[in-house]
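User:
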Amino acid sequence: MSQTSPAEPTEIPAGEAEAKVPAYSWYALGVLVVVYVLNFVDRNIISILAEDIKADLGLRDDQIGFLYGTAFGVFYALFGIPLGKLADSWHRVRLMTIGLAVWSAFTALSGFAKNFAALSVARIGVGVGEATASPSAYSLISDWFPKNMRATALAIYSSGLYIGGGISLLIGGAIVENWNAAYPVDAPLGLAGWQAAFIIVGLPGLLLAMLVFTLREPLRGQSEGIVTPPPKDPFRGFFKELVAVIPPFTLIGAAQAGTRGILINLAGALVIGGIAWLMADYTGNAQQWGAVGIGYYAIYSWATTLKRRDAPTFGLIWGTPAFLTTILGYGMVAFMSYAASFWAAPYAIRILGEAPSVAGWWIGGPGALGGFLGVIAGGWLADFLRKRLAAGRLIVVAVGLVGAAPFLYVMFTTQDTTTFYIAAFLQSLFGSSALGAAAATTQDLVLPRMRGTATATFFLSTTLVGLALGPYMAGQVSTMSGSLSTGGLSLLIAVPIGLVLLLVAYRTVPKAEQTVLERARKAGEEV
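Assistant: Predicted structure:
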């Protein structure tokens, strides 16, 4: 007996979906931009503090890369799946409010860490809290703005990434220098400058959460004429996803498919675990590859259970080459961008001899401006090309990948500070231009009820590929070679890989977008 998926979409006249954007939508978008700015201040401030943390706790470059990328990114990705599902079924404003409070509290707690393990736990907490933000925000924005303005709106939201990343360097560099100068001995609570910086940037988020709580929840799907009623039990899907993605409970989900399901799950665990063990043995970094192995196994388990539990969503995400190559192609942009932005400050301080406050000013300020200009221009250009070419947005993603590469090369080879800062600005400008285009493409390839899950899956590419591997790989190569320059240059491997993925996406996205509702209904009938 066939059955349809829960919350079957209902089509309404297109004229109702393309109504003029009200002023409240722009106000709400502005609030979300501020949230995203704080999101990346809390996430990225460790970059300018890295040299102080490394010296104070006796860490290596690969461990610093782990703290910034992997410890945060793996758990950000894992919890993004159930939280993305919750964003598809529950009150998105409330979810974002809770998440903001959680990650802000863990950022402040990072300031009390006394060793590598404690700081790792705090970074994991930040990752779990921040996993609520973008699934909720992407879904909200897609309901506040019509389809023809979606890339622009998402690009404006995404500008918070670059503004926050830049501000984090400005604030962090100033705090650590002023604190250490003011308290060379007998500092309050015995805190070093880098610890004070974590506490100072973490606390404002608790106040911002109260403003976010006042936002109005829009009707899901109305912006494009496919109104989707909320499920009767919004938390059921969340708990199912939580069990499906968190080891060892993943075996419960596998068992529901019988012996064959368990065998498939264990086979995946064996292959992924074996690769992780080999990488840990080769690099001597068990925590990195243990965390990555857990992350990839969890996603494998989740995808196999999703296919059985929600065939339409699986089909439009994991079963669609256009979707996968889009997110992985952008993942290569993120691979370079995350690592370049993180290691820029340590390179300036360690290799070029700049003071943290100076490096924070000249990397953070221009970097924020470059990121803001790039993401806004990229979003506008993506919407412009989308009107003329069905897959035109992907051209912007490819330009972002290729355009950033030569400036990354200059960043990690120059010995001149002026050249370095100019190259860092231009690298940020090009690298940021791809985000709105990639995000909008993924939203167009799924139904409204799937947007939170699609967003969480999109961020798998930016975390488990870009964030968990890029900054770590540069740090690992730096540790093995004794050269941070060599570590930075190793990131260029992402360019040829990304171009191949984006070429496939360019050829497959138009047909996939045209058949979204048809393929979803067909998959629902086969459940």
